[in-house]
């Protein structure tokens, strides 16, 4: 059942190149054009509101950057438990998107019901196509991750990101921001992800080595800018869920507004920094950590490590990836770090204490 893996989580991490390739195949015509349902039309939408809980909410956070950058479409995000109690101002011309692996999360379902009738279209991005959140939406987009058993979400996260990426491209096309050729070009780049993911999974042994040290930490910080900010929060969530080590994800630029007070030689700081337009800024924040004896683990590509790896505690070199789609790739080392740290600590990876796979109460 675990296909030769020790844990469902390991199996589900390893499946990602395959399931991402499946999702891309399903939602594109030969990898050249988008094949999303006709009803998904962003042309006359004035805003997209993305709502989810936990890991799904970090996928929404990444998607916010994509919708705004790729399609110039205002995007707003909220966690489901806050959304429905804050009297959200919903435009009747907006689209509300609910992201859920299980499709049964009580707060997300209630948020979907709250938005129904108040917005132009309610869309769900779900893994379980027969779920309540799939059935009650105007339009449900399956993420095609296959059954996810491990309580900590892994392949569902990268499949959510993939479907949201395709939605953002569709928004760009519908709104005249992208030509069909430009979309085809991005789809070709997305098509390289499964291969890059397989290469990244090859880092597993190196991650396991680092994890023996991380397992001794009391607190761990994750830092990132741009779409690496939600990835930092996802990395921290995954780590605390299964290793029970206290971890927080911060936007690198927020460091000096408080969290830098936590830095000492005992606190590992994991910096997610592909060599993109924000790289220099993230590195300067990283150097502030190093100046205070912080133990930096830098995750970047070869160019980034060559430029900024000196003086860090450890580095992990990922394949080079288009910065736009980097979050889909950088999810993998975040998952592997949590997995191997939990293994090093001897905690129950697939069934962590106090957690349920599907949260059907508020
Ligand atoms: C984290 C995790 C949870 C879920 C959250 C939402 O690894 O699995 O944070 O992401 O409970 O669940 P779904 O996506 O089923 O609505």
From TrEMBL:
The keyword Cytoplasm applies. Coiled coil: none annotated. It is found in: Cytoplasm. Transmembrane segments: none annotated. Keywords: Aminotransferase, Cytoplasm, Glutamine amidotransferase, Repeat, Transferase. The keyword Manganese does not apply. It catalyses: D-fructose 6-phosphate + L-glutamine = D-glucosamine 6-phosphate + L-glutamate. The active site is at residue 357. It comes from the Bacteria. Residues 36-177, 210-352 form the SIS domain. It is an enzyme of class 2 (transferase). Its EC number is 2.6.1.16. GO terms for molecular function: glutamine-fructose-6-phosphate transaminase (isomerizing) activity. Catalyzes the first step in hexosamine metabolism, converting fructose-6P into glucosamine-6P using glutamine as a nitrogen source. Homodimer. This is Glutamine--fructose-6-phosphate aminotransferase [isomerizing]. It comes from Pseudogemmobacter lacusdianii. The chain holds residues 244 to 605 of 605 of the full protein.
């Amino acid at each position: 059942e675990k296909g030769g893996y020790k844990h469902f989580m390991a199996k589900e991490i390893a499946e990602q190149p395959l399931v991402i390739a499946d999702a891309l195949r399903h939602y594109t015509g030969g990898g050249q054009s988008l094949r999303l349902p006709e009803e998904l039309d962003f042309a006359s939408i004035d805003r997209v509101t993305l709502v989810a809980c936990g890991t799904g909410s970090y996928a929404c956070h990444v998607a916010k950057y994509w919708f705004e950058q790729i399609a110039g479409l205002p995007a707003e995000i909220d966690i489901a438990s806050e959304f429905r109690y804050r009297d959200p101002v919903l435009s009747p011309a907006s689209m509300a998107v609910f992201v859920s692996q299980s499709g049964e999360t009580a707060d997300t379902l209630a948020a979907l019901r709250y938005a129904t009738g108040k917005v132009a279209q309610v869309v769900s991005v779900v893994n379980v196509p027969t779920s309540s959140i799939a059935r009650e939406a105007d339009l449900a987009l399956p993420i095609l991750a296959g059954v996810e058993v491990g309580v900590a979400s892994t392949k569902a996260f990268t499949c959510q990101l993939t479907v949201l990426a395709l939605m953002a491209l569709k928004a760009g096309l519908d709104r005249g921001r992208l030509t069909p050729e430009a979309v085809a070009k991005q789809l070709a780049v997305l098509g390289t992800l499964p291969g890059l993911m397989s290469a990244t999974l090859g880092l597993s042994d190196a991650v396991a080595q680092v994890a023996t040290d991380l397992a001794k930490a009391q607190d761990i910080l994750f830092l990132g800018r741009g779409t690496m900010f939600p990835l930092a929060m996802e990395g921290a969530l995954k780590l605390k869920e299964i290793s029970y080590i206290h971890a927080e994800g911060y936007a690198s630029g927020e460091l000096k507004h408080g969290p830098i007070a936590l830095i000492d030689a005992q606190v590992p700081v994991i910096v997610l920094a592909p060599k993109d337009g924000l790289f220099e800024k993230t590195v300067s924040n990283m150097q502030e950590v190093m100046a205070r004896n912080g133990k930096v683990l830098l995750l970047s590509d070869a160019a980034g490590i060559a430029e900024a790896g000196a003086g860090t505690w450890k580095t992990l070199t990922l394949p080079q990836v288009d910065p736009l789609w980097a979050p889909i790739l950088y999810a993998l080392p975040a998952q592997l770090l949590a997995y191997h740290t939990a293994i090093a600590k001897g905690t129950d990876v697939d069934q962590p204490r106090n957690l349920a796979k599907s949260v059907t109460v508020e």
